[in-house]
Amino acid sequence: MATIKDIAAAAGVSPAVVSAVLNRNNSIRCSEEKRRLILELVRKTGYRPNRAAQALGKRKSRQIGALSYSPSDPSVARIIGELERQISERNYSAVFGFWSDYPSIKVAFDSVLAHPLDGLISMHNGLIDTIPAGLPTVYYSDVPGKCCVILNYRQYFENVPTYVMMKVTPM
To answer: What is the DSSP letter of 52?
Structure first.
């Protein structure tokens, strides 16, 4: 795996210039030609930023915690898959914690909250008091005074038959 130093050496610039280009920071000057070269090298080498190094420099972890029921249920697994995709598309990493029974909820919370997080998504609201103050959190259920996402099951059940019929009916 290529490092930022490898990209810099191949482009003939400093790692600071590579970092500035990747972060769209205009405080360091870089010609358009060098910028294109750096981006091409990043694409060709499959360079991925070192999250630990970024966290040290920015005091951000680029990690989002996600707490959910066990993904053994296919509908939950699809939600988790989409959530991971959405988090990744935003250049964050997901730290998952799952539970299958009530006693394992606290273990999942403790495991996820042991990581440095920039935010948290929780499908359970019973352990709100364990979430650090100031950690942006969204709940998948109604929690008075908190940021929540309420799933519209009525709309879901109205749309699902149409979707299923489209899948089983030959075009």
So the answer is: H
